[in-house]
Structure formats: C-alpha cells, structure tokens
Write a structure and sequence with these properties.
alpha/beta, 26 strands, binds 2-acetamido-2-deoxy-beta-D-glucopyranose, cell membrane
Amino acid sequence: MKKIESLRFPVLVVWLLHFTAPCIGQDESVGAPMKIAEQEALYDTIQDFVGKWWNGSDLYPDPCGWTPIQGVSCDLYDGFWYVTDLSIGPVHDNSLTCGQDVDFSPNLFALRHLKSLSFFNCFVTPRRRPVSIPASNWEFFAGSLESLEFRLNSGLTGTVPEIFGGLRNLQSLVITENGLMGKLPESIGNLVELRRLNLAGNSFTGRVPGSIGGLNRLLILDVSGNLLSGTLPVTLGGLTALLKLDLNGNQLEGEIPKEIRNLKNLSLLDLSDNRFSGGLGETIQGLNSLQELVLSNNPIGGDIMSIGWQNLRCITALELSNMSLTGGIPESLANLKSLRFLGLNDNKLTGDIPSKIATSPNVTSIYLHGNNLTGKLNFSEAFYGRMGRRFGAWGNPGLCYQQPEEFETASHAPFGVKPCGLQVIKYGAGLRDPAWTMPSSGLDVFGVSRLALVVEALLVLALQHF
Ligand SMILES: *[C@@H]1O[C@H](CO)[C@@H](O)[C@H](O)[C@H]1NC(C)=O
Ligand SMILES: *[C@@H]1O[C@H](CO)[C@@H](O)[C@H](O)[C@H]1NC(C)=O
Ligand SMILES: *[C@@H]1O[C@H](CO)[C@@H](O)[C@H](O)[C@H]1NC(C)=O
Ligand SMILES: *[C@@H]1O[C@H](CO)[C@@H](O)[C@H](O)[C@H]1NC(C)=O
Ligand SMILES: *[C@@H]1O[C@H](CO)[C@@H](O)[C@H](O)[C@H]1NC(C)=O
Ligand SMILES: *[C@@H]1O[C@H](CO)[C@@H](O)[C@H](O)[C@H]1NC(C)=O
C-alpha cells in the first residue's frame, strides 16, 4: 500500500502538468476540436496501410493535439483541426510503417485538406498481388495538395494516372524508384505550379511529353533511369527557370534540341547513357550557368574544337567520355577556372595534349585515355605526383612522356604512358606511388582500375626486354 502511495504522486504531477499546460499557454489552438469524420478518416487510413492491430483511438486519442502521430501534421481551418501532412514509411524510428501486402486505402481521399502526401518504402516486393496508384478520386485533392511523393516502392506497378494532371496546386511531384511503367501522361503539362518533377528510376516508356515544356516554373526535371525513347520535344526550351535537367540512362535519340540553350539558369545537364547523335552544335554554348555537363556514352560525334568552351565559365565537371568526339584537345579548356573534373576519355581525339591544361587551378581529374593522342607529354613531375591516376593518358598508342634530364630518376610518371625514346629505364616507385587509391569523387571511372593493372603489367614486361 505504501508503495502505491509513493507512486501516485509523480503520476498526479504529470497528469496535472498535462492538463494545466493549455491554460498557462493561452494558446487557443490547443483546445480546438477535430471533427469526428476527419479523425475517423485519419485512423482508418493509417490502419489500412499499417495493419489492423493499429488502434488509433486507443493510442492517439488527440492526434492533432497532445498525442501527435509521427508523420502526421495538422492545421486549423475555421476553428477545426484538419490533417495537412501524411507521411507513411520508415523515415524515423517511430514512423508509421506499412504492413505486408497492404492496398491503397480509399479512406485517404476523405482527408480533404491534405497538402503533402508521401509513401516511402511502403509497397514492397514480394507481394501476393500487385498494387497500383488509384486512377480516380484525386480530384478531391485538387485544391489542396502541394506535394506528392512515392519513393522506393518496388511493389507499386501500373501507370501514372492521367488524373494527376488535375492536381493544379502541386509544386512537387516525386515518383522515384518504384515499379511504375507505361507512358507519361500528357496531362502532366497542366501542373503549372510544379517546381520539382522527379520520375527517376521507374520503367516509363514512350516519349518525353511535349506538354512538359509549358512548366515554366520548373526548377528540377529528372526522368533518369527509365526506358524513355524517341527524340526530345523542342518545347523543353520553354523550361526557362530550370536549374537541373537529368535525362541520363534512357533510350533517347536524335539531336539535342538547340532550344536547350534558352535554359539560361541551368546548372546541371546530364544526358549521358542515351543514343543522342548529331553533334553538339551550338546547343551548349549559351548555357553560361552550367556547372556540370555530363553527356558521356552517346554516339553524339562532332568536333570538340568547334565549341566555345570558354563560355562555360562556371563549369566544374565536364564529362564527355565515349561520345565519338573528334578533333584535338582545346587549349581553351585551361581557361575554365572552376573546372575540377575533365573526362574526354574513349573518344577519337587526336593531336598533342597541350601543357596548358595543367594550369587550370582547381582541376583534380583529367581523363584522356582511350584516344589517339600523340606527341610528348611534358608536364612537371609535381603534376604527375599530385594527380596520380587521376591523370589518365594511357591507351593512346602514339603518346610518350618526356623524361626528366638524363641521370635523374623519374619519381613520378604518368600512369601507363611509355617514356619517349625508351632508352633510359629507371622505372622505380613512380608507378606505385600515391596514385594507387582510386579517386572517390562522384564522376569517376571505376572500371578503369582493373584495366589499368593489366596495362601496367604489360608495360613492366615490355620494359624488361630493354
Ligand atoms: C481500439 O481501442 C478502443 C479503446 O481501447 C476500443 O474500444 C476499440 O474497440 C478498439 N478498436 C479496435 C478496432 O480494436
Ligand atoms: C534565373 O536566376 C536568376 C537569379 O537567381 C533569377 O533572378 C531569374 O528570375 C531566373 N530566371 C528565370 C527565367 O527564372
Ligand atoms: C559507349 O557508348 C555506346 C553508345 O554510344 C555504348 O553502347 C557503350 O556501351 C559505351 N561504352 C561504355 C564502356 O560505356
Ligand atoms: C577553387 O576551389 C576552391 C575550393 O573549392 C574555391 O573556393 C574556389 O572558388 C575555386 N576557384 C575557382 C576559380 O573556382
Ligand atoms: C591514329 O592516328 C594515326 C595518324 O595520326 C592514324 O594513322 C591511325 O590510324 C589512328 N588510329 C586510330 C585507331 O584511329
Ligand atoms: C618541356 O617543358 C619545359 C618547361 O616546362 C621546357 O623547358 C622544355 O623545353 C619542354 N620540352 C619539350 C620537349 O617540349
């Protein structure tokens, strides 16, 4: 009995604090009610996604007040609480996590004040039956929904419903890494408030809808990692606010529309791993805000010397490998003061490597391997030492490097390049120096290391013959 008495006091204090707090705060919103229908709709919706065991009225009797639910936010309208944000999926430790084989809950559409709705890692494989995004009822969210997100739901299949085009207040639509497929609806072009459209990592087919070009507030367009094909619509030139355009890893073909040069604020353009052709033309010349240009693995072709590279004043990464580029290495690249990464490997470049490119102040990687470059490399040993294997010049049969003065030992040599003349063999530590560690920057050629080892072994063999 004594024990119980002593326990009761702290419990009482906690209880008192709970119920007196609103009076102290004088915050009118705390005592505001929630309509039964809204509360029931919230409980039913969550229960449908999480599982029958989840008992909202028991666990969270006041979901917009003193028993908040992780992933649920509310707002006041005309003196009543309504649910404005619903986020389902294991984002935090105590997040609402989907049960196995759950379906898409129709109760959701009763929450008419939703501004933000997100499903993360909710519909996963394996499943007993496929689940897709419902094709109707979204009109109930037309006036309210600003952000809609389906991320990492491998078990979510089917298409993007045409009716999404009616969500006229949507500012962010993120549908990434799900199992969605089919064509993208033209109605996407009606979402004129969109700032972000991210459809990466699904299996979408067909063309990039021309209507997208009307989204003139769009800042981010990412449809990378799908199966989109055909040519790009010229309407993309209408995305004048765009900062990031990522179409990498599709089957897009034809010329890059010259209208792209209207995207004056673009800072990232990634068209890599497609089938674009027809040269670079003047398309990229006007993109003065570009920081990252990634066009590798396309049969684009054309002469690299014909581009006014000096105009890309902000460029930090220029990844133009495996594009069937011809011509020599433009000296003007040395004037790009912010350049950190230069990838021109696996093209058809010819001629000398201008020593001037080493003067670019911030450059940490220069990949020129796999071309037909010739002549003598004449960089300082300090440069070879600093760059290590991030200076890639191997695989150019006509290229050799100028060794230091006679009787001096080369402590740093460009990896995989033979010394000019081959007369003095002082191949010491140079090859094994700091360059062993592959660079960790995002844009690097990882597969190269194995190849490079083979090249090195051959080189050592060849040298032993002299
Ligand atoms: C939830 O809990 C309440 C109160 O404990 C109870 O009355 C109700 O029957 C439960 N509902 C379900 C669906 O289990
Ligand atoms: C481009 O960016 C500038 C500076 O951030 C901004 O003032 C301008 O409105 C942007 N242009 C467009 C078309 O959005
Ligand atoms: C080079 O690009 C072509 C397409 O132009 C592609 O088929 C090939 O796989 C690419 N090579 C590498 C090593 O990525
Ligand atoms: C070189 O890099 C440094 C550090 O990242 C940066 O502060 C500086 O602005 C860069 N220089 C140029 C010319 O971009
Ligand atoms: C490389 O260029 C030389 C001429 O400079 C030419 O004879 C040779 O065929 C070229 N090799 C390749 C693989 O294009
Ligand atoms: C290599 O460069 C040095 C200065 O950096 C210069 O003195 C020398 O003449 C050059 N050698 C050749 C063969 O170009």
